[in-house]
Write a structure and sequence with these properties.
By secondary structure, this protein is of the alpha+beta class. 26% of the residues lie in helices and 25% in strands. The protein is built from 4 helices and 5 strands, in the order βααβββαβα. A 5-stranded mixed β-sheet has the order 1-2-3-4-5, with helices on both faces.
Length: 133
């Protein structure tokens, strides 16, 4: 089966994305309105198999200095088929993202996937700070 990975916001299935994210450990409690707002302000990648959305990812970026890869998923029934690798490869090779100097992401369980694309643990983590509200 051949997949399509598209950045067209019009193709995204908001209900599908929200339903998955509400079950994801990193996005529990995110409202549909919050999901829509995050999509509105990101470069989005929808993953489609035979016209039906099966995955998603988004980049929060200034397109030069910094890019934060977020909300990456392939639904359970299609995991383990290489679609996540295709998605990450497509994102990393997207022409609008080629200038980014620092790529970041956070993951609890997909380190091996991202290592294949050059991601590694942050050097000097004591220099980084965060704030949760």
């Amino acid at each position: 089966m051949r997949i399509l990975i598209s950045t067209e916001k019009e193709k995204l299935d908001l209900d599908f994305i929200h339903e998955f994210l509400t079950r994801a450990y990193w996005a529990q409690g995110r409202t549909k309105k919050e999901v829509q707002t995050s999509i509105d302000h990101s470069l989005n990648f929808g993953v489609y198999l035979d016209g039906k959305q099966i995955g998603f990812a988004r980049m929060l970026t200034d397109y030069v200095v910094f890019g934060y890869l977020m909300d990456v998923f392939i639904i359970e029934e299609h995991q383990g088929k290489g679609y996540a690798k295709q998605l990450i490869k497509t994102i990393m090779e997207h022409p609008d993202l080629l200038q980014i100097k620092r790529w970041m992401l956070a993951t609890h369980d997909a380190h091996e996937l991202y290592k294949q694309f050059g991601f590694k643990e942050i050097e000097h983590p004591s220099r980084w700070m965060g704030k949760l509200t």
